[in-house]
# Entry
Amino acid sequence: MPPTAFVTGATSGFGEAITRRFVTEGWNVVAAGRRRERLDALCIDLGRAVHPLVLDVRDRDAVLAAAADLPPEFAPVKVLVANAGLALGLGPADRADLDDWETMVDTNIKGVMYTVRALLPQMVAAGGGHVVTIGSVAGSYPYPGGNVYGATKAFVAQLALNLRADLVGKGIRVTDIEPGLAETEFSVVRFKGDAAAAARVYEGTQPILPDDIAESVWWAVTRPAHININRIEIMASCQAFGPFQVVRS
Ligand code: NDP
Ligand code: 8X3
# Structure
């Protein structure tokens, strides 16, 4: 039976590309996301190698139930890609919408927490597996308007390192992939459907593409068993760091 990957946020962007890559490599994939029509389209495209799972990662009981109730040909899960996540807003902290902050915490922190906790026991029981989290450069480097989004990704990076500490010796590897500027539906979501604002983010750039991230996930997962890739930070070549801000009187 082919091995199974469980990919959250499979309906778009990185998650969809990761799903397609694993299926192309002969794996079965549990493809999770909230938009059923996108999952249906993936199934039409990729066939029986995909198990569509309508799932909101913020729903703790639903995540735990889904992990416990996988069809036999999709269990146990060998690779978890905890990818589902979002940024909402790019405004300064003093004017940010608290609901947006809570949605980011619920999705990017708690959603990852629930998914990892739900799937780890079957990896431990099987004696092996790989947890891939999708962090961000925003978890390492602050930028104006990054506020809570970046903080959620710092959580993801530290969770991945701490998982390594807990899982060493159990055959389970952990990798945090930390992309920078990447063109997906991320900015449309961040700007709440404002397609023009989203397009401006990528104007005149050559951003990371979803397949680039799928390639890095696949690379990390296919290293020899004695190697653990702890983290991969990937920026578009056109992106780099700015100076510290100094406000002068
Ligand atoms: P997309 O908006 O294209 O994809 C986000 C995915 O997350 C969608 O499939 C969406 O599915 C899913 N998702 C969002 N909320 C939930 C939820 N509550 N429950 C289940 N699924 C959810 O963006 P990306 O592909 O870019 O984002 C993927 C990950 O990469 C995110 O964690 C993001 O923070 C991170 N990232 C993105 C970067 C970028 O510049 N694009 C750079 C660095 C990191 P649905 O709406 O159907 O539920
Ligand atoms: C997404 C990348 O730079 O917009 O995580 O925060 S960035």
Observations:
- The domain at 4-234 is CATH 3.40.50.720 (Rossmann fold).
- Strands lie at 4-8, 28-33, 50-54, 77-82, 129-134, 172-179, 231-234.
- The mean pLDDT is 98.
